[in-house]
Write a structure and sequence with these properties.
By secondary structure, this protein is α/β, with parallel strands linked by helices. Helices cover 34% and strands 18% of the residues. The strands form eight sheets. It has a six-stranded mixed beta sheet. The chain binds pyridoxal-5'-phosphate.
């Protein structure tokens, strides 16, 4: 098979994202394949091959009628639900064109799939109807507001609702909905998106006044690119695709017969009472219960974002109370469990509009995980899914992602040395000495629970929680964290206890470095004269300088501060600023000076304080016009793209220069620990190193990496490893390579 197709077998992965799409069932795939190779006729041909194709087409249509309970009306084969939605909406809007006034509304449920409101808005604009496109609110259980419908439906040209929601599995009471719609507007066109209901709920469309119902094959084990649309008798209809007159002129284009044959087999299975492929609803509930137990056992406290009564049993939408959705998704992905954050179709957006409409909290909306299986799931598949989920428990415990109930957890990962904890562009730094003495610098509110867990789990002795200055762009989490950690030492308002803080054999000292603000300070971690890390707050930004545009900033003071700081640093002092907007992760002082021309000129005395102030003012101006209120500018240059290697090339490189080459996994330890990848590259422990991006600074601090070696960087998709390569190149590493497409493509 071509390299473009991936060979990861279905046994390797646990697929729990059926609401996005499903695999094609083997017997459906067989029928599709047979139709492509043998029964390949064009239903419009008059010879026998064509007649046979036409027969299959009509048989499938008549089975569709039985499946959805539509003895009357039309069934049209489409490319999928989106085409069905277009067709229904365009037909309605064209028929109502003359009736539209400025008071007309087009109603849709607030949790509808985006295909619905976007299509309404698009055709309302294109056809110049000028109707108002209005979302029907839902309550906290996702149920449509019937009073709102009663009030607005009299002036509606169309109302669009859904039978089952794709993110939450919430189903509507269609009979109650019908009563309220018809009581207030007997003739309005009503479309019900039934995509997620097929195979999960009994349908009897002819018994209702639903005008249009779109369906999609790939949501229920048939191939992508095939769907169908139910149209009630006498409902408005205009062909959306004109041409050769197929489908009785209602939808032109040669029919997708292999896809239709797939539907035939699917319908056969749905109608066959003796078949056990599709499971009864009680079994599906049992499956869901089993998954809930596994999740609760593994993650502890979980919030479900949908009502368990009132949603189809094949969907779970939840948040792990102590973990972000990114952490959960990365962990699942690394363990070969496929789930989705919110809706697959809106991936990229980091909030769920569905949960927002249900008045869920910000945390729920931003951190929702959707786990969905199909109604043909087997007991063995659910058992395996639960086993894989439960296997994550030790990984979580060892990585401080949950508080372990083990007495002496073996720390697969420890926070010894320097850790960069990030929230958006802000960086908080944790330093832990070999004797577990620790200091936390510039904490961010959002990171407080994670830091608390780290401290408790690794039994750290936190000596101080410090800020480099009072940050203008975020609330201080210093006092909150110090309080949570019961740190009662006397300190000033930046948390400084007054004298050097002893951290194992190193000590942390503070020097005033005004400039970014009048109260700015820098903390130096040193042993004797050797400063190993410099926590500079916003005096420096990676490859740049802190801004001097806030009220108590002073550029000349900044120049003085930098000049007095520089002699205390050595070339390999690790720079730890309070922000990392450019995802730089780690720089040494030598690289910082090299990457920041203005800093270099100041230190080389090529410019005086006044000239520095002039140039800095220009940079600040540019910064505020380009980026708004950032705390500094950065000159990070994206170096030329790293050389991309296929997995075979990596294996070959490892064979040829075994001692020289290291596979550097930059994923977080919990992802690294979720699946053993040594056999993939045929490497031993010595050649596989895990340095997550959050610990790149530590790798330099601990002199763990050497520019003389060759590094092949890996992560999930090749993005994080690409960023790390950029970082390593700016630190003088030339022999760095990226695993093309990351582990996702292996
Ligand atoms: N409606 C719902 C509820 C869906 O879940 C989807 C797919 O995500 C669609 C419509 C669009 O279906 P298709 O992919 O067949 O165009």
């Amino acid at each position: 098979m071509s390299q473009r197709f991936f060979t990861q077998t279905s046994q390797d992965i646990v697929y729990l994202d059926a609401n996005a799409t499903t695999p094609v069932l083997p017997r459906i795939a067989d029928v599709v394949s047979h139709t492509m190779k043998v029964s390949f006729g064009n239903p419009s041909s008059s010879h026998i091959t064509g007649v046979q194709a036409k027969y299959l087409l009509e048989q499938t249509r008549s089975k569709a009628r039985r499946v959805i309970g539509a003895q009357t009306g039309d069934i049209l084969f489409t490319s999928g639900a989106t085409e069905g939605i277009q067709t229904a909406i365009v037909s309605t809007l064209l028929a109502n064109r003359h009736k539209a006034t400025e008071h007309s509304v087009l109603l849709y449920g607030a949790t509808e799939h985006k295909a619905v409101p976007n299509t309404l808005k698009h055709w309302n604009d294109v056809l110049g109807l000028g109707a108002k496109v209005v979302a029907i609110p839902v309550d906290e259980n996702g149920l449509l507001d019937h009073e709102f419908i009663a009030e607005h439906v009299p002036k509606a040209l169309m109302i669009c609702t859904m039978a089952v929601n794709n993110e939450t599995g919430v189903y509507q009471d269609l009979s109650a909905l019908e009563r309220v719609i018809r009581q207030h507007n007997a003739s309005v066109s009503w479309m019900v998106d039934c995509v997620q209901a097929l195979g999960k709920q009994a349908l009897a469309l002819s018994d209702t006044s639903i005008d249009y119902a779109p369906f999609s094959g790939h949501k229920l084990y048939a191939p992508k690119g095939i769907g169908f649309l139910y149209i009630r008798e006498n409902s408005p209809y205009t062909p959306f695709i004109a041409g050769g007159g197929q489908e009785s002129g209602m939808r032109s284009g040669t029919e997708n017969l292999p896809g239709i044959a797939g539907l035939y087999e699917l319908f056969d299975l749905l109608l066959d009472e003796a078949s056990d492929v599709f499971k009864p609803v009680e079994t599906l509930h049992q499956y869901r219960k089993q998954l809930i137990n596994a999740l609760e056992q593994t993650f502890g406290s979980i919030t479900f974002n949908m009502p368990l009564v009132g949603s189809v049993p094949t969907t779970l939408n939840f948040c792990v109370d102590s973990l972000t959705s990114k952490e959960v998704m990365d962990l699942f992905d690394a363990a070969g469990i496929r789930v989705s954050g919110g809706s697959a179709c809106s991936s990229g957006a980091n909030r769920s509009f569905v949960l927002d409409a249900m008045s869920a909290s910000d945390w729920q909306s931003e951190n929702a995980i959707r786990m969905s299986f199909g109604p043909a799931a087997t007991q063995a598949e659910i058992d395996l899914a639960c086993e894989r989920i439960c296997a994550l428990k030790p990984v979580l415990a060892n990585n401080c992602l949950i508080v372990s109930d083990a007495v002496q957890p073996e720390h697969e990962v420890c926070a010894l040395g320097l850790t960069q904890l990030r929230h958006q562009g802000s960086c908080c730094w944790l330093y832990v000495a070999p004797n577990n003495d620790a200091v936390i610098i510039d904490p961010v509110v959002e990171l407080v629970p994670r830091i608390e867990r780290l401290v408790a789990q690794q039994q750290l002795h936190v000596k101080a929680v410090l800020e480099t200055h009072k940050h203008q762009d975020k609330d201080s989490a210093r006092a909150l964290l110090a309080n949570r950690l019961s740190l009662n030492t006397d300190s000033d308002e930046l948390g400084w206890p007054g004298a050097a803080v002893q951290l194992g054999e190193q000590e942390l000292v503070r020097i005033p470095t005004p400039g970014h603000s009048a109260d700015s300070h820098t903390y130096l971690l040193r042993q004797g004269d050797n400063v190993s890390a410099c926590f500079c707050g916003d005096l420096l930004i990676f490859s740049g300088l802190g801004s001097t545009q806030f009220a108590d900033a002073n550029v000349c003071d900044m120049a003085e501060s930098i000049r007095s700081l520089a002699p205390q640093l050595s070339d390999d002092t690790v720079i730890c600023p309070a922000h990392d907007y450019e995802q730089c992760f780690a720089l040494t002082w030598a690289a910082q000076v090299q990457a920041t021309p203005l800093l270099k000129q100041l230190l080389d005395e090529q410019i005086d304080k006044e000239r520095f102030a002039e140039q800095k003012a220009q940079l600040d101006e540019q910064l505020s016009s380009e980026c708004g209120a950032l705390c500094g500018f950065s000159n990070v240059v994206k170096t030329t793209a790293a050389q991309q290697l296929s997995v075979e090339q990596v294996q070959q490189m490892l064979e040829e220069c075994e001692q020289e080459t290291i596979v550097l996994d930059v994923r977080e330890p919990y992802e690294h620990g979720a699946k053993d990848i040594r056999s993939l590259f045929n490497v031993g422990d010595a050649q596989l190193v895990n340095v997550p991006l959050s610990r790149l600074a530590n790798a330099f601090f601990a002199h763990q990496l050497s520019p003389q070696k060759r590094y092949v960087l890996i992560c999930r998709t090749g993005n994080r490893s690409g960023q790390a390569i950029n970082n390593l190149k700016s630190l003088g590493f030339d022999k760095v390579y990226n695993l093309q497409g990351g582990l996702a493509l292996v």
